[in-house]
Write a structure and sequence with these properties.
Elements lengths: L8 E3 L11 E6 L9 H13 L3 E7 L8 H18 L5 E6 L9 H6 L2 E7 L6 H9 L6 E4 L17 H11 L26 H6 L5 H4 L3 H5 L16 H22 L12 H5 L5 H12 L22 H22 L6 H4 L2 H9 L11 H5 L6 H13 L4 H14 L3 H15 L6 H10 L22 H7 L3 H7 L4
Parallel strand pairs: 2-3, 2-5, 3-4, 5-6
Antiparallel strand pairs: 1-6
Length: about 500
């Protein structure tokens, strides 16, 4: 198997490995995919070394923040894919979905008592770090967390970076050594592990496998769960199988136009992969593997310079360079901030100049002012902003360029910058499939000056924070088709 960098491995407790355990337990919490997954690969390595069966637990709580039909259905689609996929391998896959708050309490401990050790996911955001750390203190065996977040191991950097340029320079100096450390495409291929046909009735009776109707997408089964049913499922299917189709279509049909046309609201030139990246149903390594194969790329094409330039360093086509800069530089910049705790308090994470200029203009007159309900229901005076919010409500996504405009206008029309930040996080995390993520945290922060620089002239409300307007957007791009599509009420 390909080697896993020690920087990706982190023991979360001092408990021992139990060589007499019945199985190795892989607790799948963030990287919900069976391929290109360092965490699953590590669990397989551990099971092979101990000559034990492998049990894969994928659980879904019902009381996580913003739990809804939309978010649940997306994860459940992935679980259904896993039931089919893992049936062909010598592992036991156990999907568990809570039917009531706290119903799953005790399941991990019950499995840990029978296990040799636990291999889980090292994800730096949302409630997951607290959940995994708490579990590590409750189980009697080693709990090891594995970083499968991005191309750069989270702990390769010992500091947070103030701008994408600074982070890009660091990447260009550091990444070459990690571009030879990709995970196995299929960590279970050709692996022969001892079988584990079932779990004791004491476990399966108290914590039954996910209902087949729920995994199959039965709306009535989803309606029985105690989650928010006012936010419907998105019109796209979740799961790693759907992701592969989207990736292939993007590389073949849209990537050639990505660099030039990705900011056009009426175009469909972006990858569409962000929800799948958020839920771990695809990883950056799989995306780059497919992209590199298409481009005929090898590490020898890397530029020897590390000046932080946005293009030219990878040795890819111009469109591919633009896409990889978004996938690696901008996405992993947010992961860097979360891993080092910088984005835990997003207001304090803003640069000093940003907080000072926003505070200076806190009491400026606001010609338009809306509250959370107004924003959520798309009740502003601005048709383009309303259309963007309606897309978010209907589809769980928003065009990338308009998402920046959307955030800037919430800053402009809120009672204060702190109120704007709270509204941004609420709307993004509640409606967006890719919310609750380091990348969306950094995007929200960018609207208030994070990872940016002061811009002149100084303006009311914004101060020197970068300004955007719907009028300028409509002058730069055609938006008539977008308004026709999303301009009507829900």
């Amino acid at each position: 198997m390909n080697k896993i960098s020690p920087q990706r491995l982190r023991p979360l407790n001092a408990a021992p490995i139990n060589p007499d355990g019945a199985f190795v337990l892989h607790w799948m919490t963030a990287f919900r995919r069976p391929v290109h997954n360092f965490a699953l690969q590590r669990a397989v390595e551990r099971a092979l070394a101990l000559r034990k069966p492998l049990l894969i637990l994928e659980a879904l709580r019902c009381d996580y923040p913003f739990a809804s039909d939309r978010l649940h259905r997306f994860v459940l689609d992935g679980m259904a894919d896993h039931v089919r996929h893992f049936a062909d391998y010598s592992v036991l896959y156990y999907p568990y979905v809570e039917a009531a708050p706290r119903a799953g309490r005790g399941l991990l401990e019950a499995l840990a008592a029978r296990s040799c050790l636990i291999v889980s996911d090292d994800y730096p955001a949302f409630f997951l770090p607290r959940m995994v750390a708490t579990a590590a203190g409750r189980v009697p065996v080693l709990l090891e967390a594995v970083d499968a977040n991005g191309i750069l191991p989270l702990r390769s950097a010992d500091r947070a970076f103030p701008t994408a340029y600074a982070f890009r320079r660091f990447l260009q100096k550091t990444l070459p050594g990690h571009l030879l450390e990709f995970p196995e495409a299929d960590p279970l291929a050709g692996v022969n592990l001892p079988p584990l046909k079932s779990l004791p009735e004491g476990i399966t009776g108290r914590w039954p496998r996910a209902d087949e109707a729920l995994l199959a997408g039965d709306p009535a089964a989803l309606a029985r769960l105690p989650i928010d049913h006012e936010i419907p499922p998105a019109p796209i299917r979740g799961g790693f199988a759907a992701t592969r189709e989207i990736l292939e279509d993007f590389l073949e049909a849209r990537l050639p136009f990505y660099g030039e046309h990705r900011s056009e609201p009426e175009g469909e030139f972006t990858s569409g992969l962000s929800p799948y990246l958020h839920f771990g149903q695809i990883g950056s390594h799989e995306i780059l593997t497919a992209l590199f194969a298409r481009e005929g790329w090898s590490p020898g094409r890397l530029s020897p310079e590390s000046r932080g330039k946005r293009s030219g360093w990878w040795g890819l086509s111009a469109a591919a360079e633009a896409f990889v800069d978004q996938l690696v530089t901008w996405r992993e910049l947010g992961f860097n901030g979360c891993a080092l705790g910088e984005l835990n308090d997003l207001w304090q994470a803003l640069p000093d100049w940003s907080r000072l200029t926003l505070a200076k203009h806190r009491d400026d007159f606001r010609p338009y002012r809306y509250d959370l309900a107004d924003f959520a229901e798309a009740r502003s005076h601005d048709p383009l902003w309303n259309a963007a919010q309606r897309q978010l409500r209907r589809e769980g996504r928003m065009h990338n360029y308009l998402r920046m405009l959307w955030g800037k206008k919430i800053l402009e029309w809120s009672a204060s910058p702190e109120a704007a930040l709270a509204i941004l996080r609420e709307l993004n995390d509640r409606y967006a499939l890719d919310g609750r993520d380091p990348n969306s945290l950094s995007g929200i922060g960018w609207c208030l000056g994070l990872y940016d620089r002061p811009w002149g002239p100084e303006r009311p409300i914004f101060g020197t924070v970068r300004y955007m307007s719907s009028e300028n957007t409509a002058r730069k791009f055609s938006v008539k088709g977008y308004l026709a599509r999303y301009g009507d009420g829900d």
